[in-house]
């Protein structure tokens, strides 16, 4: 079963677009496939970069307790 596809338009730095087109040609793949792969990689990277709730809780508690010390150390 194929996934639904949607067209969209955007603007990209011409040097980047040229490099991606050359990459697609070298790999024998469609530009659309590389763009989709890049967007999926971006989403995965950002998902992993989001701190877990319990980690943020510990950080905030630490900052509440040691905030003045952190500020002094930053100076």
Question: What tags apply to this protein structure?
Answer:
75 residues; mainly alpha; 3 helices; 73% helix
Portion of residues within helices: over 70%
| Residue runs with pLDDT of under 50 for 5 or more positions | none
- From N to C, what is the helix and strand string? HHH
Q: Which descriptor suits the 3D outline?
A: elongated
Explain what this protein looks like in three dimensions:
This protein has three helices and no strands. The protein is mainly α and 75 residues long. It has one domain (14-74). The longest helix has 22 residues, at 53-74. It is elongated, with a radius of gyration of 21 Å. The N and C termini lie far apart (59 Å). The model has no long low-confidence stretch (mean pLDDT 91).
Question: In a nutshell, what does this entry contain?
Answer:
With 75 residues, the protein is mostly helical. It has helices spanning 14-27, 31-49, 53-74.
Show the helix and strand layout.
Layout (H helix, E strand, L loop, with lengths): L13 H14 L3 H19 L3 H22 L1
Helix pairs in contact: 1-2
């Amino acid at each position: 079963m194929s996934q639904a596809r949607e067209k969209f338009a955007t603007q990209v730095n011409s040097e980047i677009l040229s490099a991606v087109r050359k990459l697609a040609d070298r790999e024998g793949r469609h530009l659309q496939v590389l763009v989709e792969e890049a967007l999926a990689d971006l989403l995965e990277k950002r998902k992993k970069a989001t701190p877990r709730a319990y980690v943020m809780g510990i950080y905030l508690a630490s900052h509440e307790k040691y905030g003045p010390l952190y500020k002094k150390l930053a100076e």
